[in-house]
Specification:
This protein is an alpha/beta fold. It is 23% helix and 31% strand. The radius of gyration is 15 Å and the shape is globular.
């Protein structure tokens, strides 16, 4: 059985992702520090404020870097993805800088937040672990006001359009991130979570 840790940095929606992973057969723990050694994978969940999340995880930043260097699978969801970048227009604090680039607000010509179902447009899905078996145009569920602008476009595996084209899935080595919420994205989201767990078992 895969042992998964969800890092609680004051984000909401932890229960939903915990239940979804347990339905797929994982054993899930919610942790409040970065003592991840006994776990097979780490989840950075997705609802909250950028500065608050960074303040909670910053004391464990070096341990997170070690986790990444060890190729422990990490899934960042929405805010959990955004805080891996250099900075965000939502806050004043520096991001974790795992990915080079900024997080910026969606264009004001569209209703913010972007909330509801939207389609994925695949870019490099054949090189993606989490998107295996997912069709181009699949519907997923978003709740966000900001989006990432990676400097390295090769990490973008799928996009979405909402006033602007923005990255919906990014992947680099064992780090997989979604701007949407797979735990709220019905069968498509559950398949992505299964892909993540299957990768963890390897």
């Amino acid at each position: 059985m895969v042992e998964v840790a969800i890092f609680d940095y004051g984000a909401g929606n932890i229960y939903s992702i915990k239940v979804a992973l347990e339905r797929l057969g994982a054993r899930v723990s919610v942790i409040h520090d970065m003592n991840y050694e006994r776990y097979d994978a780490l989840i950075l969940p997705g609802v909250g404020n950028f500065d608050t999340a960074i303040s909670s995880i910053e004391p464990y930043k070096d341990r997170l870097y070690t986790c990444i260097e060890s190729d422990i699978p990490i899934l960042g969801i929405c805010l959990g993805m955004e805080m891996l970048f250099d900075r965000s227009e939502e806050g004043e604090r520096e991001g974790l800088g795992i990915f080079k680039g900024d997080v910026v607000m969606l264009p004001t010509r569209v209703k913010i937040p972007h909330m509801g179902w939207n389609r994925l447009r695949m870019k490099k899905a054949e090189h993606s672990t989490i998107l295996q078996g997912i069709d181009d145009g699949a519907w997923v569920y978003f709740v966000h006001s900001y989006h990432a602008k990676p400097k390295d476009s090769s990490i973008i595996k799928a996009e979405c359009s909402y006033g602007i084209d923005f990255p919906a899935v990014i992947e680099y080595k064992s780090i997989m991130c979604t701007q949407f919420h797979p735990e709220k994205s019905s069968r498509t989201g559950m398949l992505m979570l299964k892909n993540f767990l299957d990768h963890t078992k390897r």
